Structure to design on (350 residues):
């Protein structure tokens, strides 16, 4: 074939392709993309997790001093999870199965056997060392601020903690993972919930007693709400969240563990916690407010949904004022001038 023939075929081929593209997308014309000029330069901008770690290094060095390096190592390690047993079904078989794998009920152990607190973290530790602090926390120290470890049966802290709270974890240094919860055939609900055991500390510190009317002001995603219901002590639990989408997910989450999550036992309210509509006509025996926070451990481990991105800098600056306003408002919802328990956010993160 001559060169003229080749050129004619090429021209016809291009015209056919152009006509085909125009028929498929009439509003799109084929064009050549511009190529970037100059060498590609790698960005030195830190990731959100790196920015979070730098910020925490500055903040906690000032607040904690030599206690920060071991705590930093613990926060960078793989999180430890626990299995919160569902008391609406028979827990004996589930507890025996977890104990056979080496798991222990950390609430019972802390109350009666005595588990060392985080004093191990007070040693001077090199940040680059392999030291791993004990992740267990003395419940008496967490709720009353004492330096003792463990609690004796019959003490005030023991009486305040519901015996129905059963949460199984593996010992420190154990790499075994908890098995996925199974569905209980008769009721169609899960036998336990895998969660961060630190989320139980506010519930234990609250000391819910039988017949208490309780308000969970910032309830989503629902770990603490489920723990409150597992105590079996709430005569009425009011669950509030500022976003309806989160409240609906919370309702669906609770239905996975409880046959009935409506009626007199649980009330769902969608409202801003700083202007909760029921404060004028309703008072509560106990109020749990898990205020929004910077989620330090999540922020230094994951870039997704990280509060340390530049677009959320304003939200991060407003957190202290939001936390204070929620705390001040929730005091107005309390029935009597009773005890106010607060847990440091740093303790909760560990």
């Amino acid at each position: 074939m001559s060169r003229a023939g080749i050129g004619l075929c090429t021209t016809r081929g291009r015209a056919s392709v152009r006509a085909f593209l125009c028929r498929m997308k009439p509003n799109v014309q084929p064009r050549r993309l511009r190529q970037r000029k100059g060498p590609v330069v790698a960005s030195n901008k830190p990731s959100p997790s790196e920015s979070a770690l730098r910020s925490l290094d500055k903040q906690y060095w000032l607040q904690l001093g030599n206690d920060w390096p071991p705590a930093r190592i613990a926060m960078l390690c793989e999180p430890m999870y626990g299995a919160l047993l569902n008391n609406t079904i028979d827990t004996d078989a589930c507890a025996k199965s977890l104990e056979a794998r080496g798991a222990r009920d950390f609430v019972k152990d802390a109350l009666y056997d005595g588990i060392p607190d985080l004093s191990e973290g007070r040693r001077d530790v090199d940040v680059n060392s392999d030291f791993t602090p004990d992740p267990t926390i003395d419940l008496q120290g967490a709720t009353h601020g004492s330096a003792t470890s463990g609690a004796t049966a019959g003490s005030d802290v023991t009486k305040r903690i519901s015996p129905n709270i059963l949460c199984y974890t593996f010992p420190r240094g154990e790499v075994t993972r908890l098995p996925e919860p199974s569905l209980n055939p008769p009721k169609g609900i899960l036998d336990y919930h895998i969660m961060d055991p630190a989320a139980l500390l506010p519930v234990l510190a609250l000391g819910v007693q039988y017949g208490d009317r309780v308000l969970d002001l910032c309830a989503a995603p629902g770990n603490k709400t489920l723990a409150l219901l597992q105590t079996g002590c709430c005569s009425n639990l009011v669950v509030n969240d500022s976003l309806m989408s989160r409240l609906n997910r919370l309702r669906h989450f609770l239905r996975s563990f409880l046959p009935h999550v409506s009626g007199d036992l649980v009330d769902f309210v969608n409202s801003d916690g700083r202007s909760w509509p029921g404060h004028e006509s309703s008072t509560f025996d106990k109020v749990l407010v898990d205020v929004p926070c910077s989620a330090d451990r999540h922020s230094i481990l994951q870039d997704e949904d990280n509060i340390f991105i530049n677009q959320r800098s304003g939200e991060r600056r407003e957190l202290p004022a939001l936390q204070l306003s929620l705390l001040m408002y929730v005091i107005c919802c309390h029935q009597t001038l009773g005890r106010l328990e607060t847990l440091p956010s740093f303790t909760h993160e560990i």
